[in-house]
Design goal:
The chain is about 55% helix and about 15% strand. By secondary structure, it is α/β, with parallel strands linked by helices. It has two domains: about 5-230, Growth Hormone, Chain: A; about 285-530, Vaccinia Virus protein VP39 (Rossmann fold). The radius of gyration is 27 Å and the shape is elongated.
């Protein structure tokens, strides 16, 4: 008797096959996105990291599709299919537990600028994904083989299988990113999706042969044991002499707050290669780091320019509020709008950096994309500070002519835009390209190199101005001006740097920022730049 396709799809066995395919697709994308977070905690979230993760995952899936098809032809049995599911689930859950020692080694290597060991750790972890992801790639072609009842409906059956698998992948894309990872963390996300897939596979085995299925219970028992034995210590321990106050994973970043012996607090993100905010008790100084240089920006205007002329500030890339805190100390409670895309960083800033209504009632914080939110604000600003990019993390849409035109429309007549840009000691192409882009919108652009760093502050003025204005305004600074402002202007004058020529201008249509940054980083590594690299630490 020939079984009708519709009847077959209604059978419990066929219906459960689609549940397996859905769960396999969901787990595949969840593992891929969790892989990027697992690696991002140490190696960052640059395009290079993403390209390696996506590229190798696709390679493993390609191999899985090929092997799965041949495997299904040789052993077209449901029991084989369910064993593939439980093994891929077990190995997926095992990844974060096995990779922990490698990640710890990588963190130390990254801090010590040991490029070879860092890269070796990176690819070692990616290799850990090879077997489980390859097995996950076997699921769809194997399911198609099991679901086929004849050649006549093969196309329709394959289409359904891949549609259900892709629907699962869609769920596996949004669920971990938006909900699971921020709430449970990376480790538990791996365990959760691996556990779901294991349960689905085990139920299938149980339906086939109950006594044989019991043999596979060692897998969750081993995972549970390894989870209990896993060290409950920070993935990246605090620097010598510092205390870890806070550690969390948000939807965007791996966040740490550390405090040194003097009570100074520092915000680190992802790989911990730079300090993103600083808080000091009873002082606003930052040891001439990047933030205080933003105080100098409006003094490129023609003299006389006084502190009273600074009326409002907008910060794109607020982080934990160091710039806002310094501006409030120097200029008083002027209106400050701070835009920070990561709510997790905002929470850390409120708890540990006085970025709250009690300490800074003049600060309004927006958890939103910088460009989008800037276009929603209707205030006129004296300064728009852009501290949202640091190679290799550069949101390209914050680098274009169109973006800077939008920023200029929100400036007062004497308003300026100040941008924190990365460089190396020998490669200033990114600075020159951004300066050329700014010059397409503003009459003048100036540069200050932040000492002992790979940062330069670019300042673009709405009115024609001169670099000599900075020294002139310093010389006529009122006697009662805040000491931090006087110190920042003094250093700004000393750190003035020339701006080179560039034919590259970033636009919304063409902004090859990633290509330029990749080249900058590669040249830095080839030229032995890691010898100059040192993690900023307390």
């Amino acid at each position: 008797m020939v079984i009708n396709t519709a009847d077959q799809l209604l059978s419990p066995r066929s219906a459960y096959l689609y549940v397996c395919v859905f769960t396999g697709g969901m787990t595949t994308l969840a593992v891929e996105l969790s892989a990027s977070r697992l690696l991002g905690n140490i190696f960052g979230t640059s395009n290079i990291v993403w390209a390696n993760v996506i590229g190798l995952i696709l390679l493993y899936l390609t191999v899985g599709y090929f092997i799965g098809g041949r495997w299904a032809d040789r052993s077209p049995h449901y029991s084989t299919f369910y064993r593939i599911l439980v093994w891929s689930a077990f190995l997926s859950a095992l990844i974060p537990l096995v990779s922990r020692p490698i990640l710890t080694t990588a963190a130390a290597a990254f801090a010590g600028a040991q490029a070879a060991l860092t890269l070796g750790s990176f690819f070692s972890i990616l290799i850990l994904f090879s077997v489980p992801v390859t097995l996950l790639g076997c699921v769809s072609p194997f399911a198609i083989r099991l679901a086929l009842s004849g050649i006549a409906d093969s196309g329709r059956t394959a289409g359904r299988i891949y549609a259900v698998s892709t629907l699962g992948s869609l769920v596996g894309t949004f669920l971990p990113t938006l909900f699971i990872i921020p709430e449970l963390g990376t480790l538990r996300t791996f365990l959760l999706f691996g556990g779901i897939l294991y349960v689905v596979g085990f139920i299938g085995l149980w339906q086939q042969q109950r006594r044989a299925a019991l043999r596979w219970l060692w897998m969750p028992l081993l995972i549970g044991l390894l989870t209990i034995l896993a060290p409950d210590s920070p993935l990246r321990p605090p620097f010598p002499g510092a205390t870890l106050l806070y550690e969390d994973e948000s939807a965007y970043n791996f966040i740490q707050v550390q405090e040194d012996a003097a009570g100074n607090r520092y915000l680190y993100l992802n790989e911990g290669q730079g300090i993103h905010s600083q808080w000091s008790p009873d002082t606003y100084a930052d040891d001439h780091r990047t933030w205080s240089f933003f105080l100098t920006a409006p003094y490129f205007n023609n003299p006389p320019f006084a502190p009273a002329d600074v009326e409002a500030l907008c910060i794109v890339g607020l982080a934990a509020g160091t710039i806002a805190r310094q501006y409030t100390a120097v200029y008083g409670p002027i209106p400050i709008d701070g835009i920070e895309i990561d709510p997790g960083i905002i929470e850390a800033g409120a708890r540990y950096f006085d970025m709250n209504a009690e300490a800074m009632p003049n600060l309004t914080v927006y958890a939103q994309d910088g460009r989008y939110m800037l276009n929603q604000l209707d205030r006129s600003y004296t300064v728009i500070a852009i501290d949202a990019y640091r190679p290799p993390y550069i949101p390209w849409h914050l680098t274009t002519v169109e973006f800077f035109q939008e920023a200029r429309r929100r400036l007062a007549d004497n308003g300026v835009v100040a941008v924190n840009v990365g460089r190396t000691n020998t490669d200033r192409r990114l600075i020159d390209a951004l300066a050329a882009t700014l010059r397409a919108v503003f009459p003048n652009v100036y540069a200050m190199d932040v000492p002992n760093s790979f940062n330069t502050i670019l300042v673009a003025t709405s009115q024609p101005a001169s670099s000599e204005n900075l020294a002139h305004n310093l010389s006529i600074l009122p006697a009662d001006a805040h000491p931090l402002l006087r110190d920042a202007l003094t250093w700004g004058v000393m750190q003035l740097a020339p701006v080179g020529h560039s034919d590259l201008i970033f636009t919304d249509d063409r902004a090859p920022v990633e290509t330029l940054v990749d080249s900058l980083v590669l040249n830095f590594l080839i030229s032995g730049g890691t010898d100059q690299l040192a993690v900023q630490q307390p």
